[in-house]
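Render DUF1648 domain-containing protein in 3D.
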Amino acid sequence: MKNKMGRLMLLLLSIAPFVLTAMALKYFPEKIPTHYDFSGNIDAFGSKNSQYVLAAVFSISGLVMFIISECVRKIHNKEEEDTVKAQNNANIINKIGIGLMILFIVMQGSELLNVYYYINNKGDFPDLKITNIALMSLMVYAGNVIAKSKMNSALGIRTSWSFKSEKAWSVSQRSGGKAMIITSILMIIAALILPEAYQIILLFSGVILVTGSSLIVSYRAVKKMDD
C-alpha cells in the first residue's frame, strides 16, 4: 500500500509543473521577462508561453523517473533475491523522483512568482534564495535515504571503497549520508542569512561542499573500518 501511494505521488507530482504553469499564465500579459543577467536584472522579454518549456522539461523528467521505476519494478528473475533487489531499486528511484519533483515544482513556482512580482510592481522575488533552500532540502532528504539504503545499483555513494563488501557499503552510506545532511543544513542556514546577490555563488559552492564532504567522510569511515 505504501509503495502504491509513493508511485501515485510521483505520477501526480510529475504533471504538477505543467498544470501549475497553465493556471498561472492565465493572469500574465503576453510579454513577460524571460531572461536575467548575473545581477538579477532583466535583459530579455518574450512570450509568456515560453514558461511551458521549463514546465515540460520538469514534467517529462518526472515521468521518465516514474517509467524507469516501473520498468525496474517489473524485473522478475528466477532467484527471489534478485527480484527483491529489483523492487528495492525501484522504491529508491521512486523516492528520489519524488524529492526531485518537489524541487522542480518549487523552482517553477519561484520562476512564476518572479514574473508575478515584476508585472505587479512588487519588487524583487528572492527566487535564487528559495531555489538554494529547496535544493539543499533535497540533499537533506537524499542523505537520509542514502544513509538507510542497502547495496543497490540505483542510488548511493558509489565508489570503489563502498563496493568492497556489504559492510563497507553500509558504513559508507551511513557516514556519507550523515555528512550530506549536516553540510546541507549548514548551507540552508547560509542561504537564509546571505542576500540574494550571493546566492549563485552559494548554489555552486553548496553542491561541491555537500558532494565533497560525503565522499571524504565515507572514505575515512571505510578506511577506519579496514584498520
